[in-house]
Amino acid sequence: MTVVEFVDFQCPPCGRLAPAISALAESRQGTVNVAVRHLPLAMHPNSLPAALAIEAAASQGAFPSMYEALFATQSEWSRLDQAQAMSYFQDLAESLGLDTAKWATAASGAEALAAVQEDVAAATSLGVRSTPSVYVNGTRVDIRGLEDLIQAVDAAALVSAR
Q1: CATH for 2-161?
Q2: Residue 161 has pLDDT above 80, yes or no
C-alpha cells in the first residue's frame, strides 16, 4: 500500500494535513509506504527553500523530524524573506541534532534541487496543480484529516485483497 502526498511546505492546508500524514506513517509502519513528494508553488516564495531544507535533512536520515518541524513552525518562517528562511531552517536542522555544515552543503547542492525537480515533474505528469494532493495506490483521494486518510487506505486495502 502506498500513499503519496504532493506537498508545499508553505501551504497552510498542507500544514493542517501534516499531523494526519505523520500519524498514518507511524501507525501503519510496515504496511503503508508514505511518500512525500515536493510541489513548491510559485505563490509561496519559501516553499522551494523549505523543500531543499528537508532534502538536506533527509540526507542525514532526518526527513520525518524535519517534516514535522517545518509544519510546526510554518507560521514563523513563512513571513521571512528567503535568506532569513534558510537561516531559520538551518537553526531547525541544528535543533534536530544535524551536522549543520553537511546540511548547508546539501541544501545548496544540485542533488537536493534535482530531487525537488523530479517530484515537480511527477506532479506535472499527473496533472497535479494544487497541494496537498494525496494518492492512495495511484488513485487521487480527497483528504481533510486522519479519519479520511485511514478510510481511503482501508478501502484501497479491501480492493487490493480481492
Answers
A1: 3.40.30.10
A2: no
